[in-house]
Amino acid sequence: MKILSWNVRGLGNPRTIYRLRQTLKTHTPQMVFFMETKINKIQMERVRRRCGFINGIDVDPNGSRGGLCLTWKGNVSIMLQSFSKRHIDVLVDDQNNGQQWRFTGFYGSPYAQDRDESWNLLKSLRRNEELPWLVCGDFNEIMYGFQKKGGIPREERRMEAFRNALEDYRLMNVGYSGNWFNWEKRNLPKTNIRECLDRGVANVNYMSMFPEATIQHLVHSTSDHCPLLITTNKEESRSS
């Protein structure tokens, strides 16, 4: 299976939708998680259908901020578990191996003072530890200082809180290929800031179920975030 996770920074622009359709056509994901759609559920449904995705779970933004969507093709079986302004949690019946696993699309708060709230949400989602579990999205935090270039260095206690949260919930990085940084604040060269904010993390049972799973940081042009393309086996990765 292929899954695309992308902080799109708004889907109200026709040019953005055109580029989105091109990305989906090129990489053919069966499931897509969008963050910061910045459009209401009715508008998001129209965008989904224009992109060839009938099924979806849409979460309204708060005014002009936020907004989530998880959408999937008809040959994928999805069962909604819970959702909020910061996450969509589902069970996936994988027809390739006949097994069930969890996918959580996660959008961490962009505000430093609300980081604990994000990690507490992640904690509340940790249940049924035997089930393979993949969490993917924009966590709005880095794990180590070298995952940021430019700007004010990140406070160690903030990075440590993020690392501790992942360790406590037994989630490990899936790894990636492509550009090192997946978010960029496009300023002048002297004030440019780049960080690794988007990632996929999973428990050991997911890693055992999909030992060939990979994540690619794709090239982007309409958002300051790279799309993440998750593939669960090498054959699909080669075909993208």
From TrEMBL:
It comes from the Eukaryota. The keyword Nucleotidyltransferase applies. Residues 4-141 form the Endonuclease/exonuclease/phosphatase domain. Keywords: Nucleotidyltransferase, RNA-directed DNA polymerase, Transferase. Gene3D superfamilies: Endonuclease/exonuclease/phosphatase. It holds the Pfam family Exo_endo_phos. One of its GO terms (molecular function) is RNA-directed DNA polymerase activity. The keyword Nucleotidyltransferase applies. This is Reverse transcriptase. The lineage of its organism: Eukaryota, Viridiplantae, Streptophyta, Embryophyta, Tracheophyta.
